[in-house]
Amino acid sequence: MRKILLVEDNLSLIEGLTFSLSKHDFDVTVARTVKEARACFNPSEYELILLDLMLPDGSGFEICKTVRQISNVPIIFLTASDEEVNIVMGLDIGGDDYITKPFKLNELISRINAALRRSDSLKQQTTVLHSNGITVKCLEGRVIKNGTEIELTAVEYRLLSLLMQHPRVILSKEQIIQKLWDCRESFVDDNTLAVYVSRLREKIEDYPKRPSFLVTIRGMGYKWNIV
């Protein structure tokens, strides 16, 4: 059974999710507050976190930021808010996906399984990526350029890793969005991706206005060049 940490304060939802997830062979531990979640989280114990956005003593954003300092475990936000700003913020600080309440159980199970498949795939890939003077230490979640560590957001890190894993290969915008988020909602679109590409270029390119590493192939997508 794969272990999930459920961070949720609604008792009826806790009861229903715990029962349903156990029927799908998940072992669920429940935390009802930010404090409880921080106390019980162990990066070697849980394979996924279901994280409510609004909690009695704070926000799920706080937990996500804490977890991302020590672990790349998949995080799926459970949120009653479908406001774009909250959802984008959750993805930007390290969330892998989100689902808006009320949701259908089958959809949640599908999202969980998709996140676990992506996580399993990353674990099987090479532990170090290197090109253009940039090194990605996958097990540590660190990026180093010419000996200096670069601070990236979770989305920027995943985008860079994805591109470097496929050097000289054109990846369509649709492929990248699917790999990074597996989201079907309209706000995760070409424009959203373009913003992250621009941010990443500012941090990794020698001349961001004239990128030579992360290049745009017009009408097709993006490619990681090796120069």
Describe this structure in words.
- There is one protein chain.
- With 227 residues, the chain is of the alpha/beta class.
- It folds into two domains: 2-123, Rossmann fold (3-Layer(aba) Sandwich); 126-224, Arc Repressor Mutant, subunit A (Orthogonal Bundle), CATH 1.10.10.
- Helices cover 41% and strands 24% of the residues.
- It has helices at residues 11-23, 34-40, 60-68, 84-92, 105-124, 154-164, 173-180, 190-204, and strands at 2-7, 26-31, 48-52, 54-55, 58-59, 75-79, 97-100, 128-131, 134-137, 142-145, 148-150, 170-171, 214-217, 221-224.
- Strands 2-1-3-6-7 form a five-stranded parallel beta sheet, with helices on both faces. A four-stranded antiparallel beta sheet has the order 8-9-10-11, covered by helices on one side. A three-stranded antiparallel beta sheet has the order 12-14-13.
- Helix 6 crosses helix 8 (190-204).
- The chain is elongated.
- The mean pLDDT is 89.
What is the element layout, followed by pairings?
Layout: E1 2-7, H1 11-23, E2 26-31, H2 34-40, E3 48-52, E4 54-55, E5 58-59, H3 60-68, E6 75-79, H4 84-92, E7 97-100, H5 105-124, E8 128-131, E9 134-137, E10 142-145, E11 148-150, H6 154-164, E12 170-171, H7 173-180, H8 190-204, E13 214-217, E14 221-224
Parallel strand pairs: 1-2, 1-3, 3-6, 6-7
Antiparallel strand pairs: 4-5, 8-9, 9-10, 10-11, 12-14, 13-14
Query: Biggest β-sheet: count, sense, barrel?
Result: 5 strands, parallel
**Low-confidence residue ranges:** none
State which percent range the strand residues make up. Answer: 15-25%
According to CATH, what is the topology of the largest domain?
Rossmann fold
- From N to C, what is the helix and strand string? EHEHEEEHEHEHEEEEHEHHEE
Q: Number of folding domains?
A: 2
* CATH classification class of the largest domain: Alpha Beta
Give the strand order of the largest sheet, numbering strands 1, 2, ... along the chain.
2-1-3-6-7
Given the helix and strand composition, which structural class is it?
alpha/beta
CATH H level, superfamily name of the largest domain: Response regulator
Question: What is the helix tally?
Answer: 8
Please give the number of β-strands.
Answer: 14
Q: Any guess at the CATH architecture of the largest domain?
A: 3-Layer(aba) Sandwich
